[in-house]
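User: I'm writing a tutorial on reading structure tokens. Could you give me a worked example: one chain, its sequence, then its tokens, then a sentence or two explaining what the tokens reveal?
Assistant: Sure. Here is the example chain.
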Amino acid sequence: MSTHPLPGARGARRRWPRRVAWGLLAALVLVAAYGASLYFWAGARLRTTEAFRPYAGRPGPGEGTDWLLVGSDSRAALTPEQRRELHVGGDHGRHTDTIMLLHHGDGGPSLVSIPRDSYVRIPGHGKNKINAAYALGGAPLLTRTVEEATGLRLDHYAEVNFLGFVDVVDALGGVRICVPAGGLRDARSGADFAAGCQGMDGVQALRYVRARYADPLGDLGRVKRQRQLVSAVADRATGLSVLVPPWRLVPFLGTSLDALRVDGGTGVAALAELGLEMADLSGRKGATTTVPVAGEPEVPGVGDVVVWDSERAKRLFDALRNDTPIPTSGPN
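And here are its predicted structure tokens:
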């Protein structure tokens, strides 16, 4: 029996690696084209707002990059039915329910909660709760207030409102949250959760993070839940089940971009970097904490406020400015 290969077999073997190479090249081109189209599509959809204005004495740049992340409690875009479902009432004022500093540099990300009742100086308006800055002068006054209170120069600003937050969580198919022992029930926010890990849709997640009246820690307990939810959203959003299938990724990105407003100097690349830093935090690679508090007195005409521990707060902000490890009680 002849052992010679059939005519054409040797040529077919030579062509096989070439076909594989061309196939891989075509796949890479398709992936690159898909990524580029997403990039330009996202850039065209990105919504911006004025967040920074020049002013005398503005802090100079520090090491690394600092974001101000804000959750607005504006009810202006909500229907009466949505207000009832979200348990947010009918107040038409503009305040910030969530204020966080995200720093990232060589030492990894750090997420710092600023209690919304922090008693600070608001330029041109005397001392008040920090969340009043947004109501008095929008994002520009809030960013200036945060910069002057912390000594940090902010590089980026991102804001999401109630309804946008709910839509983002729902676009992910919900998130998984572990409720501490004792559960959480708060008639004001609508929270009613037994202890243990459980899935939450957008409305449930909002009720969970807004609860504070039934929490013995009040606003300080709420900021911990806010960081917990941010980590849960980042963990879900950076999972393969969302990132890989276009039919999941594109709707999620569209919903997120519709929910967000960023400063005019922030583009898609910066937002992508923000997402990666959030993913590191959800993987417990970074540090999270709250601005150190000295007390929660009542101020006539203002109400119950949060007063910072000035020495410990300065150490925290100095660490952020110098991109060194922050004093923290650990990830939570």
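What the tokens reveal: The chain has ten helices and 17 strands. The chain has a mean pLDDT of 83.
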